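Here is the promised in-class demo. Please do not try to memorize the tokens; focus on the logic of going from shape to residues.
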């Protein structure tokens, strides 16, 4: 069997960079401050996530999918008298009231593409309009953080290592679902010993193999700790509905049990609502409900660690302000970013909101981008992760000079 095939077998459940981006074992002292990024692939409709129900044009632009005013049937949940939260996100209201949840409206990428592929690439590389960037911004972040990078410092959850974590720094990837933390073939002592003998003295693949084995053991140890077993017993065998709440619970357990784990990324699909989007109920609501449940589970399972965590929820672009003939929305521009955590300046909808009048819309059809997503991420990296201005220039090349409003408490 070819060495690369064997290494891929080793990585079943752990995506590892090989070849010229291979990394070696290194110790680390990661900080206690955590960052979790949730990417909503497909372009979620931010205008129905945080709905401007106080704008008369909102209901006029969306005759069948607009949320009602707070207190009405199918109404939004009041946030500040002007904006309302989608009712499927009700589990997050306590965080809003505790000022641990905030939104940045009319935010997003300045690049005007309506291509999902390109827009996601730009948000994950943090170089809008530049396709040649070799790495993701979270991978660059690993290299900028103090301490030595270990294999489990940055974690992705999904079928493959995401673009945002691709690069020279160590990163691991776990598949979605409970199988991610179950022992696999290489936990067999006989098979593991055979691989150990094959690679222990190899100058090129030996360090990669050793690091992968160490990362896999670390993940399994964290998942199998007494705390993890206690959490499973408390659930009494009843899984939370849909996939994200379960993944969120496992992620919280891993973060609590593995002090080396500091950064995490997970992507969720199904937000491309061109038809039959619905208002308080329907397709979008069915996606938002497990998202809210998962974020609530994540906050509760992290416990005190949530105070030192920031969760960023973002999507590649927004959707049209006006609903289409199929009672859905098409690819747009500006959107809404979410921030959750103990240090967030919460209980507020931030951003330069200019309303939904025809003259305020981008190209007469979309919410404009008045806050560049990189300025939001830059605040998280400076105020939460304590990076310097000089480090930001490497992390976010060509970062706009204008900044977002104060989003985190310092």
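The designed amino acids, position by position:
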């Amino acid at each position: 069997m070819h060495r690369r095939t064997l290494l891929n077998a080793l990585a079943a459940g752990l995506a590892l960079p090989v070849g010229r981006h291979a990394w070696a074992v290194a110790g680390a002292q990661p900080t206690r401050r955590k960052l979790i990024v949730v990417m909503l692939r497909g372009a979620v409709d931010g205008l129905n996530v945080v709905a401007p129900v106080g704008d008369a044009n909102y209901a006029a632009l969306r005759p069948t999918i607009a949320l009602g005013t707070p207190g009405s049937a199918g109404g939004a949940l009041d946030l500040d008298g002007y904006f309302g939260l989608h009712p499927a996100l009700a589990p997050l209201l306590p965080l809003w009231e505790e000022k641990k949840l905030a939104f940045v409206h009319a935010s997003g990428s300045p690049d005007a593409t309506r291509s999902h592929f390109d827009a996601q690439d730009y948000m994950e590389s943090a170089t809008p309009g530049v396709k040649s960037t070799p790495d993701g911004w979270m991978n660059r972040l690993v290299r900028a953080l103090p301490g030595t990078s270990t294999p489990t410092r940055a974690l992705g959850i999904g079928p493959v290592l995401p673009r945002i974590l691709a690069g020279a720094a160590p990163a691991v990837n776990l598949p979605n679902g409970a199988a991610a933390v179950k022992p696999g073939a290489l936990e067999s002592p006989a098979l593991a010993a055979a691989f150990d003998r094959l690679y222990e003295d190899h100058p090129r693949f030996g360090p990669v193999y050793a690091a992968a084995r160490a990362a896999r053991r670390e993940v399994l140890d964290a998942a199998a700790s007494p705390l993890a077993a206690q959490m499973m017993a408390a659930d009494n065998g009843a899984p939370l509905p849909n996939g994200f709440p379960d993944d969120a619970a496992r992620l919280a357990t891993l973060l609590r049990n593995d002090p080396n784990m500091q950064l995490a990324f997970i992507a969720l699909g199904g937000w491309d609502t061109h038809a039959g989007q619905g208002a308080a109920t329907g397709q979008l609501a069915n996606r938002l409900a497990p998202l809210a449940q998962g974020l609530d589970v994540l906050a509760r399972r992290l416990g005190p660690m949530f105070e030192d965590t920031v969760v960023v929820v973002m999507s590649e672009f927004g959707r049209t302000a006006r609903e289409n003939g199929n009672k859905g929305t098409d690819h747009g521009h500006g959107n809404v970013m979410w921030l959750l955590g103990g240090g967030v300046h919460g209980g507020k909808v931030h951003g330069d909101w200019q309303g939904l009048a025809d003259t305020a819309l981008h190209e007469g059809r979309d919410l404009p981008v008045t806050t560049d997503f990189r300025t939001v991420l830059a605040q998280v990296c400076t105020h939460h992760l304590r990076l310097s201005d000089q480090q930001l220039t490497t992390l976010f090349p060509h970062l706009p000079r204008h900044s977002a409003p104060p989003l985190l408490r310092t």
